[in-house]
Design a protein that fits this description.
This protein is mainly α. It has one domain. It is built from 5 helices and no strands.
Length: about 130
């Protein structure tokens, strides 16, 4: 297991569980005011929570597929949290959205540090070195 992956797995699990725990509060807020939050947002949060939990389990098993899944879920959930902060249906959901936003950004940073994207093209320095070796 990669060093530093355990905190990332724990953070993803906490975020996934947090998303699923937020769903009843979102439903209650929707019943009080049908315009906020909209039903598609509630469904999206539930899907993000389930996919984040699945990606945490996959990372714990050492798989590579969970990285793009977790990144996508956390970025989309951050956008959703920003929208929740702007709409602020109530204090509880506003606080929850702020905490989710901060933790999602931390999770994205951790994932990008643990699994950096590999460049498809060689760097200019590497190309110059290859030219000098010939």
């Amino acid at each position: 297991m990669r060093p530093g992956i355990k905190p990332t797995i724990v953070l993803l699990a906490v975020l996934g569980i947090g998303d699923l725990l937020a769903v009843p509060f979102l439903i209650a807020a929707h019943h009080r005011n049908p315009a906020q939050p909209p039903v598609p947002a509630i469904v999206a949060i539930a899907i993000f929570g389930l996919a984040t939990l699945a990606s945490a389990a996959g990372l714990a098993r050492g798989r590579r597929w969970p990285v793009p899944v977790a990144l996508t879920c956390r970025v989309l959930d951050s956008v959703s949290s920003l929208l929740g902060l702007v709409a602020h249906p109530n204090a509880v959901l506003g606080t929850w959205a702020a905490a989710t936003l901060v933790l999602s950004v931390v999770a994205v940073v951790l994932l990008l540090r643990l699994y950096p994207r590999k460049s498809a093209q060689p760097s200019p320095g590497a190309a110059a070195q290859l030219g000098n070796e010939r």
